[in-house]
């Protein structure tokens, strides 16, 4: 009799007499073979065709192992763990397991044949959890190889699958929608040289105006897209119409009024705009400027701004709240700077998110999914990276600190307190 322990297989020579459940066996087996044959014959049948079936619960000392060192089939199913026990017992006794099995007609102690396993289970049986066998080492190496392949063979994630049942997500044509935005974003851009045709205003005045409007937008608690459309309307109007210095603030207020009418549910009234301008303009002047701006822009308010791309790209980046706030902090800093008009809205959105990712989590965050949905590789974003990091570094200094004060509050998670990613500029300048 061979007993296979789970952790240490040891051969024990059979004794003349063994005691199982208070009954003595041994001599009776040797002297009364006929009786045992009859018992086996009675056990054989359609419900129990295997004579050597042993109930492990009735004979715990046997541990389910027969004389030929192969495990007996119990009522338990062939699980991966049990298959490993079978393989382990065969591994411990390689010479004996090569012996051919004898039928029940010649040997009363014939073995119940194992239930066939699948090909994968035959080739790679899983060892028991407490053993460190060759099988376990092999499986562990295979798992490490699979994990390494997953790292190097990154695939594009389906970011819209979770919104399949949301009709507002328009999953059926969201890709076509953003492809159209990318195609039409050039129509929302203005020439970065348009300020040359303005005789009484300059780039610095525009920056002061937008920095002030960001604070007004925050005070009125308007929607995020309203701010981006306001800045877009200002630039498109100034690119077509010459404005004197004293009317520049009026242009900004009316641009915000038009953006609110397009985006907001509750629109600020004209008297509110007159009040926040310290009554520098009358109600009549506001309405006259509104007509002039609408005619100049040919009533075209539907343009892709950086906001629409920000939302899509943040979803592709699988962002959390912290990344989202820092990304919007950086993109609003870009709104103030006139030199950023030379970049398309989608590019600015991608750069802001990439810079925010690197600032919070280090380099190497730009995934294949981000590259697929933005259309920009990591190398393409390097052109604008130094500018964005520079804006972040000087956001708290100087006179134009409206964006920094806004994002230095608990409502915006103190995103402005994050340290600028100067290491990115140094790394890519090498």
TrEMBL record:
Domain Cyclin-like as annotated: residue spans: 211-295, 308-390
Keyword field contains Cell division: yes
Gene Ontology MF term list: cyclin-dependent protein serine/threonine kinase regulator activity
Source species, domain of life: Eukaryota
GO cellular component terms listed in the entry, alphabetical order: cyclin-dependent protein kinase holoenzyme complex; cytoplasm; nucleus
Region (Disordered) location: 89-108
PROSITE patterns in the record: CYCLINS
Keywords from the UniProt entry: Cell cycle, Cell division, Cyclin
GO biological process terms, semicolon-separated: cell division; G1/S transition of mitotic cell cycle; response to gamma radiation
Domain Cyclin C-terminal: start-end pairs: 304-421
Similarity-based family: Belongs to the cyclin family. Cyclin AB subfamily.
Function noted in UniProt: Essential for the control of the cell cycle at the G2/M (mitosis) transition. G2/M cyclins accumulate steadily during G2 and are abruptly destroyed at mitosis.
Subunit record text: Interacts with the CDC2 and CDK2 protein kinases to form a serine/threonine kinase holoenzyme complex. The cyclin subunit imparts substrate specificity to the complex.
PANTHER family in UniProt: CYCLINS
Protein name, as recorded: Uncharacterized protein
């Amino acid at each position: 009799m061979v007993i296979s322990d789970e952790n240490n297989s040891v051969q024990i020579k059979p004794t003349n007499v063994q005691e199982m459940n208070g009954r003595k066996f041994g001599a009776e087996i040797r002297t009364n073979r006929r009786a045992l044959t009859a018992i086996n014959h009675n056990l054989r049948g359609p419900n129990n065709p295997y004579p050597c079936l042993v109930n492990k619960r009735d004979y715990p000392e046997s541990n389910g192992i027969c004389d030929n060192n192969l495990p007996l089939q119990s009522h338990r199913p062939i699980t991966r763990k049990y298959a490993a026990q079978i393989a382990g017992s065969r591994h411990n006794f390689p010479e004996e397991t090569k012996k051919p099995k004898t039928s029940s007609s010649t040997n009363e102690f014939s073995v119940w044949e194992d239930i066939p396993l699948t090909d994968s289970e035959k080739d790679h049986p899983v060892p028991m959890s407490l053993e460190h066998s060759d099988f376990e080492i092999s499986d562990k190496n295979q798992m490490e190889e699979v994990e390494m392949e997953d790292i190097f063979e990154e695939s594009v994630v389906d970011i819209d699958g979770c919104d399949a049942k949301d009709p507002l997500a328009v999953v059926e044509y969201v890709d076509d929608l953003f492809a159209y935005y990318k195609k039409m974003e050039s129509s929302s851009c203005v020439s970065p040289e348009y300020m040359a045709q303005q005789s009484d205003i300059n780039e610095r005045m525009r920056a002061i105006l937008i920095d002030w409007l960001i604070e007004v937008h925050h005070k009125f608690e308007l929607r995020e897209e309203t701010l981006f459309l306001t800045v877009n309307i200002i630039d498109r109007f100034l690119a077509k119409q010459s404005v004197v210095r004293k009317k520049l603030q009026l242009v900004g207020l009316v641009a915000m009024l038009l953006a609110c009418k397009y985006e907001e549910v509750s629109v600020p009234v004209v008297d509110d705009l007159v009040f926040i301008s310290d009554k520098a303009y009358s109600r009549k002047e506001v309405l006259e400027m509104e007509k002039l701006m609408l005619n100049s822009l040919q009533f075209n308010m539907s343009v892709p701004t950086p906001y629409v791309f920000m939302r899509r790209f943040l979803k592709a980046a699988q962002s959390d709240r912290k990344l989202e706030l820092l990304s919007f902090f950086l993109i609003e800093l870009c709104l103030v700077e006139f030199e950023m008009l030379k970049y398309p809205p989608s590019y600015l959105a991608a750069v802001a998110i990439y810079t925010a990712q690197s600032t919070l989590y280090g380099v190497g965050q730009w995934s294949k999914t981000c590259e697929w949905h933005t259309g920009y590789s990591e190398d393409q974003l390097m052109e604008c990276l130094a500018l964005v990091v520079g804006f972040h570094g000087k956001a708290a200094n100087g006179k134009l600190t409206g964006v920094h004060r806004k994002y230095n509050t608990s409502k915006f998670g103190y995103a402005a307190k994050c340290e600028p990613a100067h290491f990115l500029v140094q790394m890519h300048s090498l």
